[in-house]
Automatic annotation (TrEMBL):
This is MerR family transcriptional regulator. Gene3D superfamilies: 1.10.1660.10. Transmembrane segments: none annotated. It comes from the Bacteria. Pfam families: MerR_1. One of its GO terms (molecular function) is DNA binding.
Length: 111
């Protein structure tokens, strides 16, 4: 593995760099919370060769949003569904914007 390849992982939001313990510590939560949101289908951590869960920065951001909702009193399952729907909405809005940019005649302003 080259140094350039190793350094590129530092910028990769999807690289599973964090162990469960480190992820829980960073989020101020417990490993049980991370397991619960995994079981609810919100995140699916990669597994190391030894079978340990590994989380990416993207997954930690998603988990942090779920934790915010849970801290506000939302049940874990409902919080996970809300975060999934928020993520889907954001993606749909991005796709719509890209589509608008492709079909908008040059020189016209947004309506």
């Amino acid at each position: 593995m080259t140094a350039d390849h190793s350094l590129s992982r530092l910028d990769d939001d999807d690289y599973p760099a964090y162990t469960m313990g480190r992820a829980a510590d960073m989020l101020g939560t417990t490993p049980a919370f991370l397991r619960a949101i995994g079981e609810a289908g919100l995140i699916a951590p990669l597994r190391s060769e030894g079978g340990h869960r590994r989380y990416s920065r993207y997954q930690l951001r998603i988990a942090a949003r779920a934790r915010e909702l849970v801290d506000q009193g939302t049940p874990v399952g409902a919080a996970c569904r809300i975060v999934i729907l928020e993520d889907q909405l954001e993606e749909a809005q991005r796709i719509n914007e890209e589509h608008r940019d492709r079909v908008r005649p040059r020189g016209t302003a947004d309506a």
